[in-house]
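Re: beginner question about structure tokens

> Can someone show what the tokenized structure looks like for a real chain? I only ever see the sequence side.

Sure, here's an example I had lying around. Input first:
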Amino acid sequence: MSVRQTIIISCFVLLALGKLGDSLRCFECTSCNGPVNRNNTKTSREFNGTEYSCWKLTARGVATARGISNSCVELNAGGFGTWCCKTDLCNGAILPVPVAYLVLLMAFGSVTLFFKGS
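And the corresponding structure tokens:
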């Protein structure tokens, strides 16, 4: 099997595995003003990820809370804000790169290698 075929097959396998787990994982805390990560902050998981959103609430930069909800509404007014997102651990201080972007990058690289080798 050539390197090109291995890369293409790997991309399809990653795409298939990405859809197997239909859940959403979010940071959950009530007084978490500093950076959060898996080591210092509780995470929660909902197994029907399509209906839920992670959220982050800030109040004038003084108080921050994070969690998961099935009814998140974004708001930003007068120093108070609520932000909603739908990827794993997206309500942290630093957003992780979604797996979909990495798979897309790998697929683009595979297609480029495929046509370059032809």
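Each token stands for a local structural state, so reading them left to right follows the chain. The chain has a mean pLDDT of 77.
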